[in-house]
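The material for today's practical consists of a large collection of protein records. An example says more than a description, so a record of this kind follows:
***
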Amino acid sequence: MEWMRLDAGYARHPKVLAVGPRLAMAHLRAMGWCAEQETGGHIPTAALRAIPLTPRDADALVEARLLDLNGDGYQVHDWTDYQPDQESMIVRRGRTRERVRAHRQRQKEGGE
């Protein structure tokens, strides 16, 4: 399971208030999809159906500056300001694997 960071004030952000609850939820789904797929905030146009996000809704999120247009789709605005980069995720996973391995080894040796 992958996670994403979300500012506690997200629901009160002026851009989010301006688009309303339906498009705010579409934006959250888009960000969740990016985190799950580890795309660095990029949403290829072909992936809109998987989110699900209509092209009209994506365009409305671009107009609100919650998404940006890029070469072959969209980019979550300011994604890298809030989400870990690929290298950080790899390091975190390595540390988690080592912690789990050490824990299992301790259990195997009879101590917790």
